[in-house]
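Action item from last week, closing it out:
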Amino acid sequence: MNLAGRHRQKSLELTLREGQGKAQLSGRQGVIRYAKPTTVDEALALLGEDRWRILAGGTDFYPAQGVKPFRANILDINGLAALRGIDETDGHWRIGARATWTDIVRHPLPVAFDALKAAAREVGSVQIQNVASVAGNLCNASPAADGVPALLVLDADVELRSVKATRHLPLGDFILGNRRTALQSGEMVTAIRIPKRSAVGASTFVKLGARRYLVISVAMAAARLVIEDGVVAEAAIAVGACSAVARRLAGVEAALRGQPFAVALGDAVLSAPIEELSPIADVRGSAEYRQDAAREIVARAVRAAIGLGESKVAV
């Protein structure tokens, strides 16, 4: 690295020391590093040389620390302008990892993205939507992450980059469980891609919560329907907050395909098999309540996708 490069790196990276100049990490002396790269290549180089906790919007990062601050190297990617945009290519819509939920709401996107836009408006408050990143919502891997069902019905995949390679994983394979993802050492999420073949039809998002605003979901559903010649040619249905990860409902999708375009589509959902969910009981609802609620909000989402019904439900 030349002198200018060393000066730039020095201005971007700080070594944070605690106590009397030293931090205690796992009982040993060590240091905590903070870096704010200005290019994706710089970020990937840093990820390849050490272990880092990535800081994007920070809306989950800071609350997660509680009373015990993280003892980890911090890689702040908020300076990476290249990860911010939403672009259209020949085969995909590409959402940069740092795109915010407000970016999603404001960007002109096909009607099939309406469920994603509706979910974006449910992510915390407007202030949170202005800074919280789409990729951060996925990497946080909460079962109640509002953005996940809407991305699942769009057949989204996740772009993962390291110094050595770029790979793409279907979103359903990226989120492995509660707070667990397939992100490997040295990798970072650089984009979410939606194939254009899936960016068709009408979609909607229904959220069930204890109140109408600023609430963690009890259950939520996204539905995308393609109607051709008066019947359902394609159906994509996903439910969140009713299992360790959000799930597509293959049985419901199969029950809807070929059905006439009519209000009775909701009735088809009520009798369709739902075997993918494994709800838990917590302070927001029992497992049995979630199972029943999931079926009802899927029916409401399907009705809303054909122009009937509400997109938000309070308990």
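Closing note: Confidence is low (pLDDT under 50) at residues 2-8, 16-29.
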